[in-house]
Amino acid sequence: MGMYHNRSIWCTGGGVLCIASFLFGIFPSLPISVAKAVDVTFIPKNILIFGGNGFIGSSTAERLIAAGHKLTLVNRGNWYWDTGFYVQPHVQHIMCDRMQAASKCSGLVDFVYYSDKIDAVVDFSAYHPQSVADTLSALGGKVRLYIYISTDSVYEVSAKNHTEPSLESDAVRPSSEEKQKEFAAQESYGHRKLECEEILADYRQNKYGPPYVSLRLPDVFGQRDNTYRWWIYQLWMKLRPYLEKDIVVPSELEKKPISLVYVNDVADLITQLVEHVPPEAIDQAFNLALEETPSLMEILQDIRSELNLPDLKIVLDNKPDTIRLFPSVHQGPVDISKARKVLNWQPTEWKKAVKETVKFYESAIRTVHFDKARKEMIRTMQTYFTSKPYNVIRGLRDIYGLNYPEPRDEL
């Protein structure tokens, strides 16, 4: 039988402190987890997500839903992969095309009007500065934190003057207006995304805009990628005996290091920021990437190894039209030391992320809910990797046991 310690509970002033003292007096050995359950009441946050139905957005929404937060998604209503099953039923959805003014999205206007506060905005879908400006104006000062999903392509339009991995401080435009226009013409995506960051900073400094955090992502890989880049390489390898094109790497990329980031790591970090953002992270940009910087050759070799295809050849090619799906930038890797220090960024180890990603796409080829994505992949293989489209069908049958209608050859 346990022994209770006698304690005298002296309490003046009553209220919450008195009750807390009483509880700890009765339960001197109360486990920390139980004490937290007694003391802390979970209050779901009101989170507005622009996007949330795509690659990174759906992974983030999944985590925030599991954590019990209240999500409102603003997008055009396209539910990719299986997001119609594990995201859509659990969120409020506002149909809106951000190519039009936010004020014309009546659902968004109503949402803002009836919200006392919006704890966080996570913006996956702003690709034009006017979209950010319209959104900030529509939100009317009710936002406590704005998380903007940016890109390492901003360094393509910046006056970087060194060859080391890009630092956040390198995202400064050239002083020459002529050079700025030249860079913008060469890399319109990076130019517009940097403009979006600049709008956030301007509103914050001059127009009472919300505190913000910008996350600059290199090429993202992982489950449910809408670009299919990883899956193309993986299926290319599996179907190689039925295709005419070798697995190729442009010669200049054989040893060139590449920054990549795993989708699950990004989603985990965004979830952490929504729940608690370090004060020193406010109004800052952060590079997020893996610790490792494999070359394209190493990426493909590791996929090949995970698929257990040791005899598959990967060929170097100098032709200008050689297929390359990674990387999407020319400035090289990014430096993640700031994210490590301020955000406690601890990305998944590369080999573990490869294993998980390969496993997902190997199962995706057979998953009923992924029928649309699978059909798009089959068309890609048939269009770009062989002059005999039905060989793809035969390969899927022989390797994966998938039976698609195969018309007879004409006599």
TrEMBL record:
Q: Which SUPFAM superfamilies match?
A: NAD(P)-binding Rossmann-fold domains
Against InterPro entries, the record matches this protein to: Epimerase_deHydtase (IPR001509), NAD(P)-bd_dom_sf (IPR036291)
Organism domain of life: Eukaryota
Q: Which residues form the NAD-dependent epimerase/dehydratase domain?
A: 47-288
- Which Gene3D superfamilies does this chain map to? NAD(P)-binding Rossmann-like Domain
Supply the Pfam families for this chain.
Answer: Epimerase (PF01370)
Return the PANTHER family for the record: NAD-DEPENDENT EPIMERASE_DEHYDRATASE DOMAIN-CONTAINING PROTEIN, UDP-GLUCOSE 4-EPIMERASE
Q: What name is this protein filed under?
A: Chloroplast stem-loop binding protein of 41 kDa b, chloroplastic
